[in-house]
Design brief:
It is a single chain. With about 375 residues, the protein is mainly α. Helix 2 runs antiparallel to helix 3. It starts with a helix and ends with a helix. About 45% of the residues are buried.
Length: about 375
């Protein structure tokens, strides 16, 4: 075996490389299955539909319009990234934070109430969003730590409690003639996140703000905390075996609660960086939890449960989700992009099997190589 071949084999042994290859295969296979579904529904427009989903903002022939809508996709992707970080942070500690959706809702409610009712500036509204969502996450953590209530059950319950509580709260800042909250720009401009000149890069899209930078910085900080700090080590140790962590002198109950509070705060920050751009208003009559939190689960696992990988997976999920709005609705529903995302995420469950299969294949190649070398030596 040549030196280059050995280097390639060593590269394929890398867990991160295997995860990237597995995720890319999931995306390709998921898109292919989605295309087959489009063909079954209406073969005449399947090619155009899958192209529209993949193009997203490139659907517009005008470079100015394309850049503007590219900025809007990034704004939504930044919120999705924060929800993804919320899910994977808890996952690294052995907890499944399916409550990121509810924590996102609470963050949205707190940020908008502080902005529209109390008239506070954007940084105070962001802090309110993080603290309120962290408290909700801490409730699930406390139930898990002290009463051994499964966090999935408590999170699901809190999702709906959070939604209806926020709906009631934001009724106080609702427009008179619509079910939506008042517009930030016309009510409290100080609550809008600063653009820092980023809006000019995206055809004067005023919704592109410092939230993009905050989301990326948060991803890097989560990676540093989980990989390079004593706190991250203790949290992961607690997730692997809380009894062993307790035996080693770690406060396992505190670590569980702290993990869920941090996870909740990340989801709340995602809501803040989204709604404080003014890109959307909250509808106080909605009866379903926003999909942003649930899509965060998809982005977390597609990114290989890595904070850095989540940056790219969050953008991809949001890219095809936004692209679904350009599908011809006379042939297909816009939710077809969500269906394709579901296929991709379902296939992500097979990434582990792919890594096992690849390692076995590499082991067999290594055995054959050693066998040839032994025979050559005997000769």
């Amino acid at each position: 075996m040549s030196g280059n071949t050995r280097k390639n084999t060593g590269l394929l042994r890398n867990s991160g490389v295997q995860t990237v290859i597995g995720s890319l295969l999931c995306i390709l296979i998921g898109l292919f299955i989605g295309y087959i579904v489009l063909l079954i529904i209406n073969p005449g427009g399947a090619g155009e539909a899958i192209a529209a989903i993949l193009k997203n903002f490139l659907y517009y022939p005008s470079p100015v319009a394309a850049m503007k809508y590219f900025g809007s996709t990034l704004v939504k992707a930044s919120a999705l990234l924060m929800c993804s970080l919320s899910v994977l942070f808890a996952w690294k500690v052995g907890l499944f934070n399916i409550g990121a959706a509810g924590q996102y809702v609470v963050g949205a409610g707190a940020s908008l109430y502080f902005a529209l009712k109390l008239g506070l500036p954007w940084y105070a509204c962001l802090i309110a969003a993080v603290v309120a969502a962290a408290v909700v996450g801490g409730i699930s953590g406390a139930l898990k730590a002290y009463l051994n209530v499964n966090e999935v059950i408590s999170c699901i319950m809190l999702n709906w409690i959070s939604l209806y509580c926020v709906n009631m709260l934001l009724t106080n800042v609702k427009e008179q003639s619509t079910p939506y909250t008042k517009a930030l720009e016309g009510t409290n401009k100080s609550a809008l996140l600063p653009t820092l000149g980023l809006d000019k890069l995206f055809a004067n899209n005023k919704f592109v703000t410092a939230g993009l930078i905050l989301a990326v910085v948060a991803a890097v900080l989560v990676w540093i905390v989980m990989s390079k700090t004593k706190l991250g080590y203790e949290l992961k140790a607690t997730g692997l075996n809380k009894n062993a962590a307790k035996y080693c002198g770690m406060n396992e109950k505190r670590n569980i609660i702290l993990t869920m509070m941090i996870a909740g705060g990340l989801a709340g920050l995602g809501a803040g960086v989204f709604y404080l751009t003014g890109i959307e208003q909250w509808m106080v009559q909605q009866t379903s939890v926003p999909t942003m939190g649930f899509n965060g689960i998809a982005a977390a696992f597609l990114g290989g449960s890595s904070p850095i990988g989540a940056i790219f997976s969050s953008y991809f999920i949001q890219h095809i989700t936004s692209g679904g709005t350009y599908v011809d609705t006379t042939m297909y529903c816009t939710q077809i992009s969500d269906l394709i995302s579901a296929f991709i995420i379902y296939l992500c469950g097979f990434v582990l099997f792919f890594k096992v299969w690849l390692n076995r294949l590499l082991d067999r190649r290594e055995e054959r190589r050693l066998s040839k070398e032994q025979k050559g030596g005997e000769a």
